[in-house]
Amino acid sequence: LLFRHARSRNYVLESDVYKLESVPLDFGDYHPLKPITVTESKTKKMSRKGSTSSTSSSSSSSMMDPLSSVLDGTDPLSLFAAAADPVTTTASMDSIRKKRDKDDGSAVGSDFEQWSSKRGEILARYTTTEKLSINLYMGSEKGKGSTSGSAVSEKVRTRLEELDDLEEGSQKELLNLTQQDYMNRIEELNQSLKDAWSSDQKVKALKIVIQCSKLLSDTTVIQFYPSKFVLITDILDTFGKLVYERILSMCMDSRVSLSDNFSPETVNDTAKETCLNWFFKIASIRELIPRFYVEAAILKCNKFLSKTGISECLPRLTSVIRGIGDPLVAVYARAYLCRVGMEVAPQLKESLNKNFFDFLLTFKQIHGDTVQNQLIVQCVEIPLYLTLYSPAIDWILQCIAYRAPEVLLTEMMERCKKLGNNALLLNSVMSAFRAEFIAARSMDFIGMIKECDESGFPKHLLFRSLGLNLALADPPENDHLQILNEAWKVITKLKNPQDYINCAEVWVEYTCKHFTKREVNTVLADVIKHMTPDRAFEDAYPQLQSIIQKVITYIYDFSLLFSVEKFLPFLDMFQKESVRVEVCKCIMESFIKHQQESTKDPVILNALLHICKTMHDSVNALTLEDEKRLLAALINGFIKMVSFGRDFEQQLSFYVEARSVFCNLEPVLIQLIHSVNQLAMETRKVMRGNHSRKTAAFVR
């Protein structure tokens, strides 16, 4: 056989010889939507020592482009670029936008609770069974048949017609909508906004936003207003984001984007002109409320115009809210301004503070004749009406209190005192500021709570808010007992079981944290006393479960826990089997986690045997295998922790009882067999391998 070796080759040299000739591209003239010039490179194969290449540009006479021939030389993208401002949709733009959104979101720390986390709670809490109405924008069909190649004058004429239509107010009113229908219509409007924007109908998009903003001046179904605010501001947020991204895309020059912290000087004139155009359009809106909301929605766009744009607009918009007469509508407008302000300029706390202090100056309007007459017409009680303010005031104060110094809390407390210790404000203050600040002034807050007028906002809710703070931070040690006494005096007098258990659940943690089993026993006894009549406990299982969890978190010495006289009677309130089993699992998990040494305490054994039997008896033919394994593991953990030392007969007696009680769980029976075998080996070990008649009989 003849073997041929592969010829040696110089791949680097060959690559240089055969590579296509590079054609320099002038980026100063570059635009992705310009007509395409196809360049053909022809390479002739020559000897290996050299090569020549000829390059010729394609034209209409040579190398015809099939797409251009079909379109008669017209490129639809080029026409689109000539008719409208180009919108860059490249992948690089998306990545830049994501990065910028991330940077903007990191302006406040992770310890700041975002609005999105409150949205679901507000929608679930503020509902209505009354019929609602909504005005829908009925878009004009004019100009929809025009092609992309229409003249610029035609486009201008169409937009002028749309602006006239905007002034005339082409809309349709839908009446007698249920809450779900109303929410569906709002979602349709949100989608219509996106569709109009994507189809380059900017005026139509603006009109939809204006119509939605007008809905926020309507308080005919007042108890639904907080939820309406959430739904409408979702649309405003969408609009603000679309406008900002549109202007940002216009700042792309030669595929080079703005830096993350760009200055207005780096923004091109076209983007600035478009940005100003949006603000001029919004300034021409005649009604105050839609003009305020739409301008607040695009507040971030001021970054394109000047460095001080946002800092100048925030105080002006704060003053604009003074023109809103309805105090409920005004406070939610302030909440939206705070929300936008925290997103775009969280460092401008002075404007946020001014916003809240303006609200305090107009707070007396809540008790004015206009509001009272409105409540009479809608048959709404003042306590219910005041709860409508909570989401807005809580949010405003959360923005103000975020990383604020302790001196601001002192100022807020003084202002609350000047307003007669208004309970609504006091509750929001305790919810907003850091728990350490509130706990340090616990007795001051208790004094203010006692002086509050209870007609509008119940005192027990104030004590609940105080208790939530004390669960997170400790008050001065000398005040522990006095605080508990003052709080429990109010809580124990509550007649409504649901109000009572909502407060008691919070203060049980404070009691377990700072006091002995005697005080814990007293609190548990009081809970049993209030929740047993009329089987009120059946409607409070989540709160009762929470109480058990808190007790075993702080009292994990089970000999001490079961010496609390009212603990086992408290467990008897869990009548529903699924809930009772969950509570038993919780107790056994705590026992296995914290019990370090084996036990033979009869109190612990009897109580835990009863708890394990409850878990075992819940097993039936429908129980899942995973659930069986979990229950068996908990019971086995208990069995392993039982030891009677050298009293082997007592140990065997326990195993025999366990076998009869836990006969339906095979893993438990296996554990018992191993334990009995181990007991026999322990007996042999003690007798050193020489059984007596008694031990031999015992082992057999």
From TrEMBL:
<feature type="compositionally biased region" description="Low complexity">
    <location>
        <begin position="49"/>
        <end position="68"/>
    </location>
</feature>
<comment type="similarity">
    <text>Belongs to the VPS35L family.</text>
</comment>
<keyword id="KW-0967">Endosome</keyword>
<feature type="region of interest" description="Disordered">
    <location>
        <begin position="39"/>
        <end position="68"/>
    </location>
</feature>
<dbReference type="GO" id="GO:0032456">
    <property type="term" value="P:endocytic recycling"/>
</dbReference>
<dbReference type="InterPro" id="IPR029705">
    <property type="entry name" value="VPS35L"/>
</dbReference>
<keyword id="KW-0175">Coiled coil</keyword>
<feature type="coiled-coil region">
    <location>
        <begin position="160"/>
        <end position="192"/>
    </location>
</feature>
<keyword id="KW-0653">Protein transport</keyword>
<feature type="region of interest" description="Disordered">
    <location>
        <begin position="91"/>
        <end position="111"/>
    </location>
</feature>
<dbReference type="GO" id="GO:0015031">
    <property type="term" value="P:protein transport"/>
</dbReference>
<protein>
    <recommendedName>
        <fullName>VPS35 endosomal protein-sorting factor-like</fullName>
    </recommendedName>
</protein>
<keyword id="KW-0813">Transport</keyword>
<dbReference type="GO" id="GO:0005768">
    <property type="term" value="C:endosome"/>
</dbReference>
